[in-house]
């Protein structure tokens, strides 16, 4: 793996991502796998198909371009969080990931004919997902609080 500073030494206009947590644009499967599975399970999908994967990718791309929430900004103090070379993909702990990806995947499962339990009430489904987000947020809050001083250094 080439380090970002080595790339920038050759091309200052390069846009790149890495698997490392200590550089911008960390690419990690935690950005999509849990939420693809959530949408697939909730819709009773018999498989995870290309349509569902593409729906997840579009949801992630849309979220990267969206204005940041206060929760994300507070968790990543000092980080550049507006779409550009230093911020191509959402942060792994963005609580909006589930709210965007799981419904997109469930809808794609339905539209492509692999859902055995189609979502009937999208508002109720989103409320259910939101309750998961709040529950996990309460669990992660002490971890974020403990990590915040290290991020500010």
TrEMBL record:
One protein family per Pfam: Malic_M
Example of a GO MF term: oxidoreductase activity
Transmembrane segments: none
Keyword list, A-Z: Oxidoreductase
Residues of the Malic enzyme NAD-binding domain: 1-110
InterPro entries linked to this entry: Malate_Decarboxylase (IPR051674), Malic_NAD-bd (IPR012302), NAD(P)-bd_dom_sf (IPR036291)
Domain of life: Eukaryota
Name by which UniProt lists this protein: Malic enzyme NAD-binding domain-containing protein
Protein species of origin: Hemiselmis andersenii
